């Protein structure tokens, strides 16, 4: 599945289906379609995944066709592709010009034709992502791509606030909680109660009958 991510589709979806999708790591699928297929099979057999996700556009068509051809579902990924961020100049919004938006659409259509069951659209202007969604016959999953996509995904660490203060988070992330602060508060309270011996209290301690303890002390007094 997409590591540490929360995937959600609008409530209009009639049925909810849980899919375990393995995100193929960089270096495990780019060399050749045969390498990608071998990795996908391992994800399915050893990782118990129901499908795999990989990044890239038209250049990945032979790879996707190879994997889908043996019956393994593939989730595509266009727009900002994090594994290729260095060649993109870092984590930058994609599709801000007519030419680059057209390339993303072209890539998405190619992935659809290759057999992808859905496509992640990341860090793309909302109007572009919405237009692409309308042009496709398969669902889009937006992340930083507006609310016009078929569904949404957020990294769990980001959305729950499970990171230290000062960490930069993308503009599109909405923080729904503050797990880090609550965890830190709990740990500090634990530390203070241990130092003051408030913890463990009697309710956290196993009991022994007084008579048995006295018998134990008597038998062990010369030890």
Summarize this entry quickly.
This protein has seven helices and seven strands.
Averaging pLDDT over every residue, what do you get?
Answer: 90
How far is the N terminus from the C terminus?
A: 58 Å
CATH class of the largest domain: Alpha Beta
Strand order within the widest beta sheet = 1-7-6-5-4-3-2
pLDDT < 50 runs, ≥5 residues: none
Count of beta strands = 7
Residue share in β-strands:
5-15%
InterPro entries: Pantoate_hydroxy_MeTrfase, Pyrv/PenolPyrv_kinase-like_dom, Pyrv_kinase-like_dom_sf
Protein name: 3-methyl-2-oxobutanoate hydroxymethyltransferase
Catalytic activity: (6R)-5,10-methylene-5,6,7,8-tetrahydrofolate + 3-methyl-2-oxobutanoate + H2O = 2-dehydropantoate + (6S)-5,6,7,8-tetrahydrofolate
GO biological process, one term: pantothenate biosynthetic process
């Amino acid at each position: 599945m997409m590591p540490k991510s929360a995937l959600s589709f609008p409530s209009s979806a009639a049925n909810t289906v849980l899919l375990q999708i393995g995100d193929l790591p960089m270096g495990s699928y780019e060399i050749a379609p045969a390498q990608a297929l071998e990795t996908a099979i391992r994800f399915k057999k050893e990782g118990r995944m129901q499908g795999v996700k990989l990044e890239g556009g038209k250049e990945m068509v032979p790879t996707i066709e190879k994997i889908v051809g043996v019956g393994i579902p593939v989730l595509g990924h266009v727009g900002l592709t994090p594994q290729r961020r260095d060649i993109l100049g870092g984590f930058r919004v994609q599709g801000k010009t007519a030419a680059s938006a057209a390339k993303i659409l072209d890539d998405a259509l190619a992935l659809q034709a290759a057999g992808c069951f859905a496509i992640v659209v990341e860090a793309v202007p909302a109007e572009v992502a919405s237009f692409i969604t309308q042009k496709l016959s398969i669902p889009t999953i937006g992340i930083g791509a507006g609310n016009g996509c078929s569904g949404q995904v957020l990294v769990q660490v980001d959305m729950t606030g499970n990171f230290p203060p000062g960490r930069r988070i993308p503009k599109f992330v909405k923080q729904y909680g503050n797990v880090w602060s609550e965890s830190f508060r709990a740990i500090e309270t634990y530390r203070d109660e241990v130092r003051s011996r408030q913890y463990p209290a009697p309710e956290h301690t196993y009991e022994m009958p007084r008579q048995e303890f006295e018998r134990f002390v008597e038998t062990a007094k010369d030890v």
